Amino acid sequence: MMYAARVDETNVVVDVIVVGDDSGISWCERNLPGRWVETSSSTRGKFAAKGDTYDEANDVFVSNKPSEP
Hints:
It is globular, with a radius of gyration of 12 Å. It has one helix at residues 22-31; strands spanning 3-7, 13-18, 35-39, 53-55, 60-62. It is an alpha+beta fold. It is built from one helix and five strands. It starts with a strand and ends in a 7-residue tail after the last strand. It has one domain. It is 14% helix and 32% strand. A three-stranded antiparallel β-sheet has the order 2-1-3, with helices on one face. It has a two-stranded antiparallel ribbon with strand order 4-5.
């Protein structure tokens, strides 16, 4: 089973869905708006979650930590 993260124009994750297999990413790209990136706990640093950022240069997802008061 595979998962795909939809990232917005600033590379922030806005959705994570189950896509089934490798062809699922292609299906998302053809049928759903936005940019889709495969995610899992064994690739790209961490499993993507809403609000995370996709670091395209390093091909990883990073958590956005809340700012300190």
